[in-house]
Amino acid sequence: MTPDAIPPAPSDAIPAATLILMREGAEAGDPPEILMIERGAALAFLGGAMVFPGGRVDPGDRAMIDAADADPEGSAARIAAIRETIEEVGLVVGIAPTPDDARQERLRDGVRRGESLATLLTETGSTLVPEALTPFARWCPEHVPVRRFDARFYLAAIDRSRSTPRIDGSETVRAEWLPAAEALARADRDEIRIIYPTRRTLERLALYRDFPSAVADARAWPVRRIIPFLAERDGVPSICIPDDLGFPITAEPAAQARRG
After folding, report:
1. By the 8 A CB rule, do 206 and 181 touch?
2. 84: which of 60, 91, 106, 188 lies 20 to 30 Å off by Cα?
């Protein structure tokens, strides 16, 4: 894919990263579960919404990138996704060796206090494993109020035995593992609130029987910056996305789409 295949980032878009964390279902044959978090209701950005862990790319993330890195922005985003997941839900992925309880606690507490992830990795004898995160999508909706993010979405797996979240209690007020189809059903019953990119992502995740099939599908489609647009579909004004990026549903009537 040539660079000009990716729509240019709007000048006001903040680089960000999101981690779609998956674990196996409770019983053999159950669909995989996705970690979703509820943002504090008082937050200016998506307060009260259910989302995936993530946040903006910080200067410290970029400082960890090797000067010869062929994709420094993508690498910084992976680091941000790892760091934000530790901060928001206390779960460690993309780091080797798998930390024992004491090292995981040190990483969690250090990240939440704002200590350098690079320093924490050295202290705990850990290294980053960026290939543990598979690129999945890239969302840059222009209709979200307050601020706009250019967010790279990644897939990663975690063993069920190590997947109990510990929320930070400030930005994140709840964390729950859900099959994608169940999350969509809860949203349809107005039990949780999800926005347009989250719904489209969950619809795609609901197609997968396990993590390997999710990774295989993610690698089969290009990852381009998605800027939803308004167009008519069957005579109905709809919020749309391109139809060549692997998403099973690419339009939703504008009147019912939740955009912020």
Report:
1. yes
2. 188
